[in-house]
Each structure stands twice: as structure tokens, then as C-alpha cells.
Amino acid sequence: MISFFRRLIRGYIKSNLLLRILMGLLLGAVAGLLCGPDIQWIKPLGDLFIRLLKMIVMPVIIFTLVVGAAGIHTSKLGRVGVKALLFYVLTSAFAVALGLLFGNMFSPGEGMALTAMHSAGDNSINLTKPDLIDTLLNIVPSNPFAAIAEGNVLATIFVSLFTGVALAHIRECENVQTREAAQALYQFFEGGSQLVYVIVHWVLQFAPIGVFALIAVVFGNQGAAAFGPLIGVTLTVYCAFVAHLVLVYGGILTWRRISFRQFLIKARAAMVTSFVTRSSGGTLPVSMEVAEKEMGVSRGIFSFTLPLGATLNMDGTAIYQGVCAVFIGLAIGLPLSFEQQLTVIVTAVLASIGTAGVPGAGAIMLLMVLDSVGLKVEQGSTVAAAYAMIFGIDALLDMGRTSLNVTGDLTVTCVVAQSEGELQTEVWNNRLPTTPAAQKI
Ligand code: ASP
Questions:
Q1: Are 294 and 434 within 8 A, CB to CB?
Q2: Is this prediction's pTM over 0.85?
Q3: β-bridge partners, 297
Q4: 336 CB under 6 A from ligand 1?
Q5: CB of 222 sitting under 6 A from ligand 1
Q6: Diameter over CA atoms, the chain
Q7: Which atom of ligand 1 is nearest to the CA of 402?
Q8: 283 lines ligand 1 (CB under 6 A)
Q9: Hey, what's the torsion of the CAs at 125, 397, 315, 351, to 10 degrees?
């Protein structure tokens, strides 16, 4: 009996990880549809997976970002930063515009003549509007240890970057004693980053079970009804996601002579993980593994661009906010004017930047976008009713937008790395032996 279980576990670990994750996804959907809300008991397994991912996010960011920033020449860091930020902001702006375009083309919500039937209060939505200035100010923590302990990703990135750059500086110091101390500190962080990668590899072994549970609960709760009256908005959002993926990411990669097809094959583990976890931040360990082991991006680049992208670059969220703004306008019989849509472009880019890489964050930030064009989500209003409808299927929309968010981060990382001569073609072409983890993905 014991040897049977041992063989079972060994077989499980040896089989292809991606295949296992996909199986978990499909079987989870079927189980959810068959069992309905009764499948709720399985939720703790999904929560456990999310907790495991979250557990390693902060250590991964701190160790890899400090090592990455400390290992890269200060002048290069500035260049990489500017390039990455430029790509991130431009693609986000394009994403909102695309969302608006698709929203206008497909017109989801048109003719709904919504009344205030679903009051926001009934759906227990948190209507507190996030303050953008505060979000931006919070990037600089007044207490770095508190920021890390609270899981404030953006602030942790800031502190880690600061530490890494300072470390790079003292590693080149003329004083021998200081230089040696800096070297010892660098080795500590280097050791830490190796350690967290091993933990990531172990955590990923649980992914298929976690995925099964997460999907089963979504389908169990929402069932086929999830595709009911909101099928229009879901289709519009997903069509825009695909268009952005092909036109923008495909276009940028092809322009840089990087095979888009190869890129998708290599990025698949991160795309699937983000789809099911609905968290860019949670997927970070997987994205980093993919960037390094599958794509051959040097650590000095991805340790900076990926955590930054996971918090700032949210193209999927920007598209979703564009479509939803149009949907809500149409649903309440007040279509957005051209000027209002221009405002949406600006606020949705800012909102997507301020959106945390956690499940559902984009839906909260949508409140800020709606507010900017006078669509106030107040209890009992028609805007609140339309918002509540979208909120009801947020899990479905969040899956696609998070996956696109992560794919965008990897695209920019590849392009920036290539432009810096930091994309190892031997690894990209699979000519170098990769780790067991990468082989299995
Ligand atoms: N869940 C998304 C992410 O983690 C953010 C959002 O809700 O739009 O990227």
C-alpha cells in the first residue's frame, strides 16, 4: 500500500507540470458544473495554493530584485528602467483605447434600460473609492519593514531597488573593508535568491490541485449562469484581450524579430498560472522562472522588469476598464461622449498603474474610472446596478485580464532584454540544459 502511494506520488511529480495544470483546469470546471455550490468544501485547497504563492512573493521580490539591481551597472539600470516604463505606459494606453473601441463596436449593454433593481447594497459591494494620490505616495514607505510585513508590493519593490542600487555602489567602493562587507551582503542575497527558486519549484508541484479547486469553486458558484446576460460584455472583453495579444505583443515581438509563436509556447506556464490564480503578484515566481529558464533573460533585467510590471503594467485591466465604462454608459442609457472616452483613457491608465496584482483589484479601481466621467456608483443608482452586474462575473473577467497583464510583462521583459543584449539565444533556442523545473513546465 505504502509503495503504491510512493509510486503514485513519484509518477505525479515526474509527469509534465503544464499538462497537470491544464487537467486540473478542465476537471475543475466539470466538477464545478456538476456539483454546483456544493463544491464549496474544496475551497480550502485553492486557498492553500494562493497562500503558498503569496508566501513566496515577498522573498522572491526582495532577494531577486536586490541581487539583480546590485549586479547591474548603475547607468544600465537607469536605461532599462526608462525603456521598461515607456513600454508599460504606452501599451497600457493602447489597451484602454482598444477596450473603448471594442466596447463601441460590440455595444454590450445597449438597450438594457437598466433600472436600479440590483442595488449595490444588496450585492454587498465595497463602494469606497481608492485615492490615486495616496496609492502613488504609498510607493515610498515610511516604514520599509512594515511595508514588507503588510505585503505592499510596490513599496517593497522601491525599497529593494534602493537597497540593490546602494549595494552596487558600495561593491565598487575604494575602501577594502567596505567592499568586502558589501560582497558578503551580496552573497547573502544571492544565496537567498537560489533558495527561493527551490521553494518556488516545490510550491508549483501543488499547482494542479490548487487549480482544480479554484476553478471548481468559480464554476460551482456561477455555473452556466455566469455566461447568461453578461455574455456580451465577457465576449467583448475577451475579444479585445486577444486583439491586444496579437496586435500589440505579437507586433512588438515581431518588430524586434522575436518569434511570437515561440514566445507564447515559452510563456504558457505563466499565462495559465495567472489565469487561474487571478494574481499577477502571485504569478511572479512563475514568470521569473519562465523568463530565466525558458527565455534566457538575464536576472539583472527580469528581476527588475517583472516585479515592476506585475504591479504597474496591467494591460488586461486597462482593457477591461475601457469596455466596462462603455458597457455601464450604454446599460443606463447614457452612452459615453467622445470627451468622456478620452478622460477614460487617462484615468484607466492611472487606475491600472495603481491596481495591485491581486484578484479583483481592477474591479475596485474601476470605481475611480467611472467617477472621473461622472458615473458615480452610489447605492441604489442605475450605475450601481450595472456595476453590480459586472462585479458578479468579475472572476471570469479577472482570469483573462490577469493572464494578459502577465503576458504583457513578459513581452516587455523580452524586448528590453534583447535590446540590452541580455537575452541568451542558447537558452531561447533550448540549446542549453535547463533546470528540472523548466523541463517539466
Ligand atoms: N487580478 C489582476 C492582476 O493581478 C488585477 C485586476 O484585478 O485587474 O493582475
A1: yes
A2: no
A3: 423
A4: no
A5: no
A6: 74
A7: 9
A8: no
A9: -10
pLDDT band at 153 (very low <50, low <70, confident <90, very high): low
Q: Per the structure block, which three cell numbers stand in for 101?
A: 473601441
The string of pLDDT tens digits covering residues 97-109 is 999 999 999 888 6
- pLDDT of 320 strictly over 90: yes
Q: What are the φ and ψ backbone dihedral angles of 280, each rounded to 5 degrees?
A: -65, -40
A 10 A CB-CB count for 370 gives: 25
* DSSP element (H, E) containing 12: helix 2-14
Burial class, 82, CB count within 10 angstroms (exposed 0-12 / middle 13-18 / buried 19+)? exposed
**Backbone torsions φ then ψ of 69, nearest 5 degrees:** -70, -35
Q: Report the percentage of the chain scoring pLDDT > 70.
A: 85
Which residue reads 454546483 in cell numbers?
36
Nearest CA to ligand 1 atom 2: 402
Nearest CA to ligand 1 atom 1: 359
Confidence of residue 405 (pLDDT cuts 50, 70, 90): very high
Q: What is the pLDDT of residue 116?
A: 44
- Cα–Cα distance between 190 and 259 in angstroms, integer? 32
Q: Is 286 exposed, middle or buried (0-12, 13-18, 19+ CB in 10 A)?
A: buried
| Residues composing the chain | 441
Structure confidence at residue 75 (pLDDT): 64
Determine the distance separating the centroid of ligand 1 and the alpha carbon of 276, expressed in angstroms.
11
Of 269, 270, 267, whose CA–CA distance to 295 is shortest?
267
Ligand 1: centre distance to CA 66 (Å): 25
Q: Are 300 and 75 in contact (CB under 8 A)?
A: no
